[in-house]
Write a structure and sequence with these properties.
Layout (H helix, E strand, L loop, with lengths): L9 E4 L7 E6 L4 E8 L5 H14 L4 E8 L12
Parallel strand pairs: 3-4
Antiparallel strand pairs: 1-2, 2-3
Length: 81
């Protein structure tokens, strides 16, 4: 779930339904806010797809990712642009 104040204009972003991601574009800005859930038993292909979707969103926007990240089998290493 993602809650945004009514006074902030947003536009929902259509994403694959099998991924647990909700995203909205903040109108008049270059920001996208994403809420995601990554369960502890997540299949590596679903994790790869999730990262791919978030990467594609970042091509044209700055993204803010919030959520519940419970995947202890994997180690994420941040990349610096």
């Amino acid at each position: 779930m993602l809650a945004i104040r009514n006074s902030i204009p947003t536009k929902p972003i259509a994403l694959p339904l099998y991924l647990e991601i909700v995203a909205v574009e903040l109108i008049h800005t270059r920001y996208v806010v994403c809420a995601t859930y990554l369960p502890p038993n997540m299949d590596i292909s679903k994790l790869t797809d999730t990262i791919s979707v978030l990467s594609k969103l970042s091509y044209n926007h700055s993204i803010i990712v919030i959520g519940d990240f419970q995947f202890p089998r994997y180690k994420l290493v941040p990349t610096i642009r």
